[in-house]
Amino acid sequence: MRNNFPDYRGNMEYYCLGCDQRYGIDELLYTCPSCGGVLMLHDAAFASLKAKSGEEWRALFDTRAASKLDALRGIFRFYEIMAPVLEPEDIIYLGEGNTPVINASPTLREAIGANFAIKNDGQNPSASFKDRGMACAFSYLRALIRKHGWDEVLTICASTGDTSAAAALYAAYVGGPVKSVVLLPQGKVTPQQLGQPLGSGATVIELPGVFDDCMKVVEDLARNYRVALLNSKNAWRILGQESYAFEAAQWRDWDMRDLCLFVPIGNAGNITAVLNGFLKLHELNIIARLPRIFGVQSSHADPVFRYYEQESAAGTGKAEFKAVKVRPSVAQAAMIGNPVSFPRVRRLVAKYRELAGDRAFQVVRVSEQDIIESMLLANRHGHIVCTQGGESLAGLREALRQKLVGANEFSLIDSTAHMLKFAGFQEHYFADDFAPEYEIKPDGALKNAPLPLFSQAEKDALTETEYVRRASVAVADQLGLKAR
Ligand SMILES: *Cc1c(COP(=O)(O)O)cnc(C)c1O
Ligand SMILES: [Zn+2]
Prior knowledge:
Layout: E1 12-16, E2 22-23, E3 39-43, H1 54-64, H2 70-73, E4 101-103, H3 106-112, E5 115-120, H4 130-148, E6 153-158, H5 162-174, E7 178-185, H6 191-199, E8 203-207, H7 211-224, E9 228-229, H8 235-241, H9 243-251, E10 259-264, H10 269-283, E11 292-298, H11 303-314, H12 342-356, E12 361-366, H13 368-379, H14 387-401, E13 410-415, H15 423-431, H16 456-460, H17 464-479
Parallel strand pairs: 5-13, 6-7, 6-9, 7-8, 10-11, 10-13, 11-12
Antiparallel strand pairs: 1-2, 1-3, 4-5
Helix pairs in contact: 4-5, 4-8, 5-6, 8-10, 9-10, 10-12, 13-14
Bound molecules: pyridoxal-5'-phosphate (PLP) and zinc ion (ZN).
Pyridoxal-5'-phosphate is lined by residues 128, 130, 160, 162, 232, 264-271, 333-334, 386, 388, 416-417.
């Protein structure tokens, strides 16, 4: 069936979480000009969407899943509830979204002791979920460029690796006036993540320190110079990332009963988007109830966990947020001590819990050992899970240990990037050479290593025929093969 681009146009505006001030979207804003607070975007006409029933929306999104229009094939399948101000010619589609949900293999299900599936967001174009947000942010940027006739736009971001890979990719695709600059903490991104923006032709600047230090520099740049900030302070990125929640709901056929989601928290942009996405679906009756959401943090970068731990002891609204100093983590993409989106999380969690109860949002903390071993365990049972996906899965295991998840519940694990970006951590585990700060002691059962059989010198001393025969015998001996 043919799908035309929707007619609906919303009335989007920024609103400040600090002072509730509203601002038009003609300008790129990152923080509130009057109080400095974090901004969110919403459609002031959102309530008008209730003219359609939940059932009609579900049918529309289900039909649209077959659309052949580039502008509707990716995250903009959910156009009306995401960024309904963009014109189709501005929308960028690089194949983001629509990532596979893989049911846990029977043996992994047994090993974990729960029923669950993994949504592999590593199968996005730059191999992480960051592409969802970039597709939206760059589409909006294209609209601005068209409108204002800008001849040069410098996009800039700080990154734990994946934001810069995604930003550089989309900037390279858009081309023209758009130039990409990324700021990385030296030695704190993987070689693969460093290779990505370099390959896309971005200007890559390395700075000492960790992500939190780079973020401060980028914020200073955004305050004092004309640059387009692409960190998740940019509320357009949050909108695009809401597509994760929409897809998850659609995959469950919009039935949220007994569903728990596990999401790693770093800068807290992703969890913000997931919370907001489900709240929108609920408000339009597209889903009848809210699923339970578990944020997961490593004990080496756990400011959000600490906040909610304090709040559950002291009472709602009585906790005080404190940034933490991070320690090295294999979930390096989430190794952030002062999450920029925390004020968003606090606000949305309060709303979420008001609608669905305190158990509807919880944060669990996991060890580095559990993170890497959950990743390895998932992968050796046929999945492709990155270290942050390992963190999500470790979160499920921790929730099971604490009996926070019941036997009748089904969990969806967010694996946020492709495993290959983090292959170095697997190597450290197999070689048992993690720096002591990681606090990881490999378990023999999960180790694996290549078996060298012949040396080059031994091979060189033989004719080819001799070598092939001898090597074949050696392999057969190694494997204990029987002759036929
Ligand atoms: C950015 C990132 C995270 C953390 O997401 P936030 O939105 O910063 O909380 C987790 N995993 C991967 C792979 C990432 O790139
Ligand atoms: Zn404000």
